[in-house]
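name: query_chain
kind: protein
chains: 1
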Amino acid sequence: MKIALSIEYFIEKRGGAERYLVDLAHRLKKHGHEVHLFSKKFDPELSKLFYAHPVKNLAFPSFLSRLFFAYHHKKMIGVDDFDVILGVGGTLVANFVQLHGGVHNSWLIKDANSYPFPLNIWKLIERRINPKQVINGWMEKKLTKNYKVKRIIAISDMVKKDLIRFYKIPEEKIDVIYNGVDINRFHPTMRVFREEVRNRYNIPLEKFLIIFMANNFRLKGLKYLLLAIGELSREGEDIYLVVVGKGKVERYKRFAKKIGIKERIIFT
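structure:
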């Protein structure tokens, strides 16, 4: 099949959706499909391995950047040219949709509620009137409700419920397909690296170790994980935590120190 995958940045290290699509492109090619990539920017090696189609970019103003990308993507792609056009958000054309980051309106509410009261109310109002968020929400709604979309893939039951709640998508049009895991990469045999990792961060081999990975520590609930580890430590549990990703590291280091678990938390 001739398959189009589209996202603003086909750069694997940029985020979860990007990593997912890069991996999907490789797997589709391995199975003999003709894979076309549409993006503003690509990892250099992707342009050599796939049919890469650069889409015009607008750097300023930032709130119009995604709309500009979607407009030119629509002009370039032509719905009838491909057997499958997979959209993950940020475009207006697709016949299959997978909102990798969940439903935008649901994200707005959850993100605002990750702040304490009454700051959460202000954050929600601020996001509701932010031009970038307004455009993102409008584009997502237009994409998911497009009559040319054959199926919508929800990565969880929660996303399925949000699609029905916010966009009134018929339940029979939605398939729940959880993100896959590379069982060769994430396999019990990889425990051969257990000693290496623990030695690197001075964590005793026999201690219980948790790894937390996120690009938004606040939204993903790092504070509550730290509180839980603090509570368990006071009950005598010997737990260590390695934190990987992006966030306000110094803020969480101070919080870990405040609740008495600074020595158990390692930020990479």
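note: Residues 2-176 form a domain with the Rossmann fold fold (CATH 3.40.50.2000).
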